[in-house]
Specification:
Oligomer: homodimer
Number of strands of chain A: 4
Largest interface: A-B, 25 and 25 residues
Order of helices and strands of chain A: EHEHEEHHHHHHHHH
Largest sheet of chain A: 4 strands, mixed
Strand order of the largest sheet of chain A: 2-1-3-4
Structural class of chain A: alpha+beta
Strand content of chain A: 5-15%
Chain lengths: 258, 258
């Protein structure tokens, strides 16, 4: 039996939900409200001591880290395969997934926290904030929450570096798609595409200075193709297991601050 | 044909050389002198645009990123296997390798740069330093070299955070070895052990406050066992392809500054 502890339409939860959907795997859904900080509560920490979302539980054994979970799902449930059979293409898949984890994810995440996530902490009273921070298991994440809670949020130079990192990733991806393609790891749709999507979704609309027809036509085409996949449309839809994100309406548009 | 562009006894080169040695694979060795900044020269950048060491070339096709290279070697040359057959153990192997890449490696690297690598840049004239920095392809690495070149090197709080990160990793590893073992991913010696070793080698001697018999007996035992493996002893020995590191004698002891 598969169980997923997740937060619906947030990027890291989408990564694993996409893989489960592409494989047509059934699972028991446990929604964790990260804006109520449920992932820092004892019940969840018993499952994942890092207090990170999501956690997959397979026959009672918990698995964490989305990139690792996704490759596990392809090891444990090989059909349909989401890794290329060729060793060199597989290495390309892993290299891109690593660049997503180490450069794209933290950069997109910081911009998302600046835009939305800090809405949930910026008005906490000092005592409530201290109490909340004290329960965050990982030092790095504690620092991130502390910065998000400042009136200005993250520093301007950090936000600029994040934008440069996203642009760097997109240029690399454009080169890869132009050289091989039509998917990131070559001929086959793979975990590299799934792992990248939650951080690039609708980026042609959100950041047209970075993703656009003139400079990154292959990335635009990739977005069009991947966003038309039935499993992707399903996974990104608001549903019982995936309510609208904080600060967003059901169609993904921003709700203006009151 | 396999070719390895590497810098001998530096951690990331050791990671791949260990895997090649465990598998008994022959390769053409190309030594890159990182202290002469050969990895930022056009000849090397043609192979690896990131200017990172090492690069493996298999039948003319370059591969980068050590964790990805190591898993590629196990895909392309399956005997002897360096990944557990069980999917859950394999996920554990990948999770630990990821923690090495994202937490252990940057932390150990910063301390090593503070102790040794900056010896090669701290006396560069301002013009020579500017010229050298301008050739570093990755912004993150450029910043690291710029910090290393300052009279004091890295900031005290960064060095402290690195020490805390190493201690965090070691505690996690102690728990994993205690729960399963005798290797990081369980019963089988795997890439998780190889990927971690270059950042933990002799750590019981170098950092007895972090690795010691009283607090981390399983990590001490792991070090003893892995450092006795013939492939490990070979790979760590000074040889034609692996000269002593800058600032160190052939036995690994520090050369006092003149």
């Amino acid at each position: 039996m598969l169980e997923l502890y997740h937060s619906g339409l947030t990027a890291n939860s989408l990564k694993v939900r996409l893989t489960l959907a592409e494989k047509g795997l059934d699972y028991v859904s446990h929604f964790i409200d990260i804006h109520a900080f449920e992932h820092h509560r004892a019940a969840y920490l018993a499952l994942n001591p890092d207090g990170q979302i999501p956690t997959l539980v397979h026959d009672g054994r918990p698995l964490t880290e989305t990139t690792v979970i996704n490759e596990y799902l392809d090891d444990a449930f090989p059909a349909p395969p989401l890794r290329p059979a060729d060793a060199m293409a597989r290495a390309g898949m892993r290299r891109f997934s690593k660049l997503v984890d180490e450069m794209l994810f933290p950069s997109v995440s910081m911009l998302g926290w600046q835009r939305r996530v800090r809405l949930t902490v910026k008005d906490l009273a000092p005592d409530a904030l201290r109490e909340m921070l004290a329960r965050v298991p990982l030092e790095e994440k504690r620092d991130k929450w502390a910065k998000a809670a400042r009136p200005e949020g993250f520093a301007a130079e950090e936000l600029e570096l994040s934008r440069r990192n996203i642009a760097f990733f997109v240029v690399r991806m454009e080169e890869a798609l132009c050289e091989d393609g039509p998917w990131i790891a070559g001929a086959d749709y793979s975990l590299a595409d799934i792992n990248a999507l939650p951080f690039l979704y609708r980026l042609d609309l959100l950041a047209p200075g970075i993703v656009n027809e003139a400079e990154t036509p292959h990335v635009v085409d990739w977005l069009t193709r991947i966003q038309a996949r039935p499993a992707v449309i399903d996974t990104y839809s608001v549903s019982e297991e995936a309510p609208p994100r904080v600060g967003e309406a059901a169609d993904g548009s921003l709700i203006p601050p009151a």
